[in-house]
Amino acid sequence: MGTRNRKRLVAFVVGHEKWGKTYTLRALCGPTARRVTIGGIEFLVRRSSNDDITTQKPNGYIKFINSLSAPLVIAALCPKFKKISNSNLRQKFADDLLKRLQRKGYTLFFWVIKHRWGKSDSIHPKEISELRKYGRVRVFDRVDARSRVRAKAFRAFVSGIL
Questions:
Q1: Per the domain annotation, does 134 fall within a domain?
Q2: How much is the average pLDDT of 135-147?
Q3: 4-8, 20-24, 44-48, 118-122: which has the minimum mean pLDDT?
């Protein structure tokens, strides 16, 4: 399906805090770039995630989602859902954010980093099944893949959905 048939698309790099999302996106588009071209198509890139909450900007990710108008977006996402999160901060919950994007007409894709870099931790199957309710999911299950390897695999994933 070409991008002409799809007006709005968000491809997420998914993982928990300190999981490698930002490093993957940095390897994809450079240390300061906010845009990347894949398959000749330019994407807006948001490296910080819904789990990157600061006291200065506690609602930064929510504001990003609410103000989003770019048709093609790559973003980081932590798969914390109300039912399975150990946090009470609503800013961190993925459900509301994903529903907002769908209401705005975005088709959602999730590229999940299954294992935390250098650790045995892995994404819970319930989190993956929750993501499947919102869009297509691909799980990257290499344990100790460096950020450039992850970025190359993510680029291939995005190329495949264009």
A1: yes
A2: 92
A3: 4-8
Instruction: Fill in the DSSP letter of residue 17.
Output: T
- 97, 14 in Cβ contact below 8 A? no
In a domain, 89, yes or no: yes
Burial of 54 (0-12, 13-18, 19+ CB in 10 A): exposed
User: In this structure, what CATH number is given to the domain that contains residue 157?
Assistant: 3.40.50
With a CB cutoff of 8 Å and minimum separation 6, the contacts of 157 are: 11, 109, 111, 138
Establish if 58 belongs to a structural domain: yes
Q: Which pLDDT score, from 0 to 100, does residue 133 have? A: 95
Write down the pLDDT at residue 14.
Answer: 96
Instruction: Report whether pLDDT(69) > 60.
Output: yes
How many domains does the structure of the chain reveal?
1
* Domain span including residue 143: 9-161
